[in-house]
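Entry 14: structure prediction run for Pullulanase-type alpha-1,6-glucosidase. Input pasted below.
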Amino acid sequence: MKVTLLRAAAALTTLALGAAALPSVAQTARAAVPAAEAQAPAEAQWIDRATVVWKVEHTAATAEELSSADGGTLRLTPAPLTDAQKAAHPHLADRPAFSLDPRDRDKAATALRGPLAAVQRAADGRVLHRTGVQIPGVLDDLYAARARRARLGPVFHGGRPTLSVWAPTARSVSLDLDGRTVAMRRGARSGVWSVTGTSDWRDKPYRYRVRVWAPSVGRTVTNEVTDPYATALTADSARSLVTDLADPRLAPAGWAALKKPEAVPPRDARIQELHIRDFSIADRTSAHPGQYLAFTDQDSDGMRHLRRLARSGTSYVHLLPAFDFGTVPERRSDQARPGCDLAALPADSDQQQKCVAQTAARDGYNWGYDPLHYTVPEGSYASDPDGPARTREFRQMVQGLARAGLRTVMDVVYNHTVAAGQDGTSVLDRIVPGYYQRLLDDGSVATSTCCPGTAPEHAMMGKLVVDSLVTWAKQYKVDGFRFDLMGHHPKANILAVRKALDALTPAEDGVDGKSIILYGEGWNFGEAADDARFVQATQRHMAGTGIATFSDRARDAVRGGGPFDEDPRVQGFASGLFTDPNGSPANGTPDEQRARLLHAQDLIKVGLSGNLADYTFTDTGGRRVKGSEVDYNGSPAGYAAAPGDALAYADAHDNETLYDALAYKLPAPTPAADRARAQVLALATATLSQGPALSQAGTELLRSKSLDRNSYDSGDWFNAIHWACEDGSGFGRGLPPAADNQPKWPYAAPLLTNPAARPGCTEITGASGAYRDLLRIRTTEKAFSQATGEGVQDALSFPLSGTGETPGVITMRLGRLVVVFNATPSRQSQTVPALAGTPYALHPVQAHGSDATVKTSTYERATGTFTVPGRTVAVYAAEAAAR
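Run finished. Output tokens:
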């Protein structure tokens, strides 16, 4: 059953970050917390076996205690936190603390297995204050040292499985195996319950039966729950399966000997972000629409396009969540479909979105940012969700991508779960209530991520993250991971992932872990913001680690405005700010537009450097500045220590597609051909940057979602990629869904019926070819692949930057290359006196490429003048380098 969209999440994020600085996934609510359970506050925090933090005022006339139904009374004495405790719990550093009486400390393990309260009494015994107790810290102190070393889930030795689950607060745990009950044994020092079975347990369905105190409902419950470490599932995640991923029956032909395309350094990664269902659901040439197996259809239009991208330099396909998620019926027979003739409705009709919305809660579509089981492939993409097909077919997908010349990245979402408490889709919280989810001061579950947040700062949640990723790397040969809302993870947790992956070797594990790339959203917001609870894995903290973070700096400068602008026509560098104004008052006066445009050009220059903090150049104000001294909404624009720390992009699955954003922002009469050229120019600012770059699949084909800014649940009609140009780009498929777009309908409706805004085959194929040409230049010219900040400083310059810089034009010199980004609608000449006499020519790839317009670019050797058509990126090479 789908959960409903949490509308408030976007507004809260806007308040936290400022609209102009808004990140991508964080800004887009995708799934919500189920209806809140009645739960008493839990304002005391038991942080280790000897210490409780509780914001009450102790006096000589009061006494504090922990009251437990099982452990009796545990006496408390005021005691200051140590420096080590303050460092471990910075958000509690200034709170009153209490020490457990040494005589009562041996009661802790028993007390934790039942109702627990912190109580303050007056001298006469009256209760002055009473509250629940948060227990993650003490659980880690008591059990984590042993539990971290445990192998959880199904583990096979000699054909016999051992099943293990960490449940330290449970009164009992038994195994429901294929309808019969099997007792499990508890490890007193680890809190792990386990049982070893016989070989005939293989592939049997199972759940754990956990009897445990559940604070969210205030009673002891018996939960029948699937395994958080499940390796396989029945349909709709009803049961885990006792499955050995090393079973040869799960390996497709050729799996053991699979040869991957050669790994590239992370700084050179060129990544295509792709949703599995979007890829093939509308592809008439695919034999397996919407499935993992679509990537084995090597002659389909989609796979042919991916091969063309791979030959041009795309190195990775980044798959949106493909783990088991909780919002799609997995059997296709259970999936609803819109009951309207959508194609027959007008381009600006509100009926398409209305019809799609009626089945959205039961259809086969969701982005999948609602994790249910982290280490099992999603069943709705399999030919049969009930059993091993999803494992085998996920592996076949990886094989298919490898055969096309592409490595595989998974989008992983360990920062939240689809549900918490006693909800039927809550797994972790029904096994160890109050541990895996991050709790706020009152004991409620944090939801700043849009959904019930997890706490990777707790030892066993951190372990789950590491163990899960190692499994995907070893058992599924995944080549990279993209972390959703990585800033909600501790930096230490992400570095532990890196260390665990680095330890994988081809000889021992079948994969080279050091070649696996990592990147994520390093946004800083919510209850973890500003390192409130730990040092976060944010943009500034991950610099220098080799783990990249998405950079929103150049993205915003290129597109203009943000996804929550009341008027979506706010322009940027590629969308005509100042040079081709659209008449919206939101853009300000001409002088204001000019100033904003020139500052945007400085942000783009920092992006082209790889977002380096120390890269030095002359800004458009004539000042010599470092990247870190260029302002981005009050933050440093440059934060990277080396190329590879920042990932460039102009669009991703969040917010409007690049084409749709430009559709809003370019002047309404702008011809489709010019819109296509603006698209390629915007993509070029990321494609031709130092460091890794990502683009949304189909963006090079002018992909549209009919102006939908949040299509996570908008169904196939708005999301499907159309690989054949005669099927269109997706533009004009009706007004986008009201839930997130209705305020923009007055702007959207005239656009959707505007013939100038609807691209045809000429524009679609032209943009695709021009993008691939630029991609080929980026991946064959070594100057774009500087390994160090010093190398970038030596090779890269902006010779015309300063007070005389042309608004709307950036001229970049990189080694023996000169690149001119002309975002204006007219032909522009850029004279670089220092290059007079040096022989330059249009780069051979463009000179013999697909874009006829760029071929009209000229160069005057005598004066060093480069002349480039409007809305064009021209790459010139010194003739010695071009031969």
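Notes: Residues 141-249 form a domain with the Immunoglobulin-like fold (CATH 2.60.40.10). Will compare against the previous run tomorrow.
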